[in-house]
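Hey, I'm writing a tutorial for new members on how sequence and structure tokens pair up, and I'd like a real worked example in the thread rather than a made-up one. If someone can provide the structure for the chain below, I'll link this post from the tutorial.
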Amino acid sequence: MEAAAPQGFRQRLQQLPRGFIYLLMALVVVWQLLFPLPMPISPSATTKGVYDAINKVPPGKLIVISADWDASTEAETGPQMTAIMHACFRAKKPFALLTLSPPAGAKLANDRAVAVAEQYGAKYGVNWCNWGYKYGYENIVMSLAKNIPATLKSDFHGDPISALPMMTGVKDYRDLGLVIEVTGLANVTEIWLGFLRGPFGTPLAAGYTAVMAPGYYPFVDSHQMAGMLVGAKGAAEMEALVEHPGDATRIMNVQSWAHLLIIALIVVGNLGYLLARGGGRR
């Protein structure tokens, strides 16, 4: 058998060992996790729409944040929820958490709210509250339109909703200034659009996993929704707006450097191809 011809420099550029590429990727990821070099974040129009909607809520109106997610999507929806809470506390807008499905969302969102509230000295029942998990989807959303305290009855801790200071005077949807749906589930937003946004004109915004978001751009473009956060990217953009970089910023920073490495490898491979083709012609 004839020995394989030795590869020249041009061929090596086109055929980098797979293990070498994986090693480079791992080194870049670990490097940015341990010694991050932050990339600039420019908030998109859809993210600014959510941020502006929060700041435009009139005094005396309540924001409802519907936490319809669980651990399966927490990498995206969790940072979205935290960034939204930062925006509410910074703007001094009281908010109430609500979970329609799955039940775990009520606890996961509550834990994040407690952590963020401590940073602002916010008090439960005054600056924020948790209505808890309420089963019923459309039935709950429709019933809230008639009588919020009677529909909810008790909060996440089992205490009467009417006993919370921030719920004084809150009766129905006319007392809400904004609803923000944060979810990893399909077709939940449509419930709010049909029974809240349409009949009452209450502003609606949302936060979605990246794979869900494309289906909701038409609602933003038609102004049925004030804006939306798209996956971890949207969460990172909101973190930039509220000046509180967190998990999403770290995720996007690592991802951005990984993308730069991939682009560099593509350039190297194409450079080797062009050099080899030029050498063959000579």
